[in-house]
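INTERNAL AUDIT FORM
Audit reference: QA-55
Scope: verify that the stored structure record matches its stored sequence.
Auditor: D.O.
Record contents follow.
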Amino acid sequence: MPQLTKRVTMIELFYDLVFAYMISQATSLIHHLSHGTVSPISFLIFAVVVIVFINSWMVQSVFTNRFGSSSWTDIAFYFVDMMILLYMTNSFGNTSSENMTTFFMAASLLSLTLLLQYLIVYFKADYQADKDIAKVFSGILLFRTLTLLIGGLSNAGWARLVAFLG
């Protein structure tokens, strides 16, 4: 059976460029040194931000490589996700865990859009293997969306902990 290859579209490349910009902006979280060292809370916030960004990029990449079809729906989701990502980039200027509410809300919205993409695939898929993959990713994204939403809706310490663990 011949192996089919997918061409990389310009929208995918632009999406990757937005992520590269985001990672470069995230480094500003550990740019400010206190007595020559990075504070543990600043490093933890940096780690969470980078993990959320890279995880979101990987989930989108899996979707694009497995199910992406360069349809208008896919393109619309790409643009919505890029707007959310750019908003997220500007939401973590402070290295205090008390000021992560905006970031958690935007990250939960990003997770929700990724969840919607996988749910669309689940209901449209013809093959059981595609349904199974979409179901697993949907479950993971639902959990992540809810935990980040809890952190975004409540400014309590326990809610931020739930968001960090999610």
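Auditor finding: record pair retrieved intact. The chain has one domain: 10-165.
Action required: none
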